[in-house]
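Troubleshooting log. The previous run stalled partway through. Resubmitting the same two chains, unchanged.
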Amino acid sequence: MRKDVFGLIYAGEENMNLRELVNKRSVGALPIGGRYRAIDFVLSNMVNSGIRNIGVIPRVNYHSLMDHLGSGKEWDLNRKNDGLFLIPPYDNRDNTGSYRGLIDTLKGANSFIRHAQQKYCLLSGSHTIYNDTYREMFDYHLSTGADVTVMYNIPSHGFIGVDNEKDICLEMDSTGRILDMKVHGTTSSGAYDKVGMSIYMVRKDLLQYLVDDANSRGKTSFAADVLMNNLGSLKVYGFEHKGYVGRLRSAASFYNVNMDLLNPDIQNALFRTGNNIYTKIKDEAPTKYGSEAKVSNSLIGSGCVIDGVVENSIIFRDVTIAKGTVVKNSIIMQSSEIYNDSRLENTILDKQVTVRPNSILAGSREYPVIIPKGANV
Amino acid sequence: MIVKKNCVAMLLAGGQGSRLYALTQNRAKPAVPYGGKYKIIDFPLSNCIHSGIDTVGVLTQYEPLELNAYIGNGATWDLDCMSGGAYVLPPYVKGKKGEWYSGTASAIFQNIHFIDQYDPDYILVLSGDHIYTMDYDKMIQDHAKNGADATIAVMEVPMEEASRFGIMNTDDQMRIVEFEEKPPVPKNNLASMGIYVFSWKKVKQYLIADSKDPESSNDFGKNIIPNMLNNGEKMMAYLFDGYWKDVGTIDSLWEANMDLLKEKPELDLSDDSWRIYGKNLVKPPHYIGEEAKVKNSIIGDGCTVLGEIENCILFPSVVIEKGAVVRNSVIMQETVIQEGAVVEKSILDEQVTIMENAKIGGPEKITVIGSELSIPKGAEVAEGEMLYPSMK
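Second attempt completed without errors. Output:
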C-alpha cells in the first residue's frame, strides 16, 4: 500500500465530552492503556499496512501531541522520502488559524494532499482504539468500485447513545452499499447497528473535489455534510472491522475503554496480533514491587515503584504508589505520585499529580473523579 | 575530515564468560541479560554517553552475532550522533593473513588506525563484564590534572578477598608503585576494576613494542601495565566508591540481580540523570491477574503474571500461569512457566518452557536452565543442576 495510499489523521476532534482530560491536549494525545496515546493505534495500523506517507492535523493545544510524535522515529516514519508530517492550522484569508470542522481542516492540509504521490487517501480521526491493517479494506474499496469506503463495527452490547451521540450509524444493503446514515445514533440495535469508526478510504482527486465543493457551500462536516447528503450520487460502501473497538468520546467512555483493557482477550486483540502498536520510548527501568505490594487485575507500565494495594486499575509509566495506599478501579497517568495511606477509587489522575498522605478520592464509574495534570491534592 | 576527540573509548567485549557456562554457550558475556531489561554492555555504553564520550569502539570476537546486532549504530545509547558513534570492531584480515585478538592489548593494537583517525589525547579502555555506574569524565580530568601516562580505576575490596584481584600498591599521592596480579599475600586492598585511561601517544608506543615481542601474551594486566611501571611512567590510581559488580559467575550474576530487590538498592536504575539505556522492545504494559500474588519483585513490559512470584526478576514477555509459584529467581525474556510449576532459586534463560507441575531447583544451590529448553510435565530438575542449550 506504500505506493497507493497516504494517510491523513485528524487529531483534534471537537464536540467531545472529555472534560478536563482535553484541557491541555488534543484528543489524539489522550493517554490510554498504561503506555499509549490514542493516536498510536491508528498511526500504527497505518504503518502496519505499509503506509509511509502520513499527515497528522492537530487543531488546538497540540504541544503534547507534537512532543509525542517527534520525528516519527518510533513508527519508522523518519524517512528520507515521505514519512510523518505535522500540519497545524494554517492562517489565511479564509480562516482565522483555527479549524471549524474536518472540511476546514482538509482545506488547510491542501498542500500536503496535493503533493502526495499516492492516488488514494485514508482519512481518519484519532479517538478510535483498535488493531487492524487496512489491506483488506483497500482491496474491498477497489473491487466494489466505491467512491468512499467507511470502516465500521457492530458493537456487541448496549451501545448507549448519549455517550456516542456523534458517531455515525449506518444502514447498508446486501452488497455493502450504504443507503442511509444518522449522526444521532440513539438506537442500539436493528438496521442502524453498524457504527462508523471515523475512517474513510477515498480517491485523492475525489477528496479534493468534495472538499472544495463543500467549502464553497460553507459546509464544515465531512460525514454529515458531504457523505450524508450525497449517498445517492456517491457510491459509499461499508467495510466491517471484526474485533475490539474502543471510542474515546467522553470522560465516561475514556474510563470504560481503559478498563476494557484489563480483559486478557481484549489485550490479545490489541497487543498480540502480530502487528505491534508503537509508541514513544521512555527508557524507564522495569517496574519494582515492594514487600508489601498487593496487586490484582491491573495493567502496569514500566518505571513504577509499587508498595501499596492496586486492584482493577491502569497504572501508566513512572508512577509511585506508597505503602498503605489503596488504588481501586482507577486510572493513574504517567509520573503521578501517591503517598502513603491514601485511598483512591474510581479516580482518574492525569499526569504528574501528587496525592498527599492520608487522602481520600472517590468517584463513581459513570462519573469518575478527574484530577487535572500537575495538581497537588 | 574527522573532528579531533579529547577521548575515545575502547570497549573490550570479546570476553567468553566461560564461568557462566550455559548462559554464555551461545552469546558473549557482555550480551548476558541483567536486571529485567538490560544486557551487561548497556552499563559501560550508557556510562560513556553520560560522561560525554560519544565515540566508542566495541571489540568483539567470541560469539559476536548477538552482540553486533544489538549494538547496531549505537542509537540505543544515543551514540548515533554526527561526530561520533558506536563502532563494532571485529578482528579482520590485514595484508596477507588474518589475526585474532590474542589479548586485550592486541585488540587495541590492531585498531590503532581506528583510534588515530580521531587524534585523541586519551583513550579509555573498558571491559564489558561489570555492572556499575561511573562518571568517566571525572577520571579523565583527574588523569589530565596529574599529567599521568596511565590512570587505573581501583576500589577497596575486603582484605580477605584481595588475593582474587589485581592489586595496586600506591604511595600516599595515589601513584602506583607496584602491581600484583592475584597476590597470595596482598599488601593492599585496592583492586583494579579493569578501567584504564591512557595518554594515547604514550600507550601507542608500548602497544607497538608489545606486538613485536613474541613472548608477550599481549595483555594489559600482564604486559603493558607492568612494562610501563618498570619504565617509570607516571601511573595513578583513581579511587572509585560505589556499586561495582563483576558478574562473571553464576553466583555473582544471581546476587547482582537480587541486589536490585533490596529496599534501597545501591545501584539506582531509576536515576533520571544517569539513565541506563537498553533496547526497548515493543511490548504492552505488564498484566497482573486477578488471583496473582506479586511480592518484592521487578517485572518488565509485556509480562503476564497469573500465579505467585516472590523475590523475582522477570524480563519482558514472561508468562507465569495460574497456580505456578516462582521464588528467588531470574526469569529471562519470553520464558513461560505453566500451571502448577514450581521454580526456586533458578536462572531461566530466554524462551524456556517449564511445563505443568514441573519442579525446578531448591533453596540452596542455584539451578540454571539454558535458552529455548523445554522441561516436560511433572519433571523435576534438582537444585544446583545446569542444563545446557543446544549449540547454535
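Takeaways: The two ends of chain A are 49 Å apart (CA to CA). The interface with chain B takes residues 33-35, 262, 264, 267, 270-272, 276-278, 281, 283-291, 293-303, 305, 310, 315 of chain A (CB under 8 Å).
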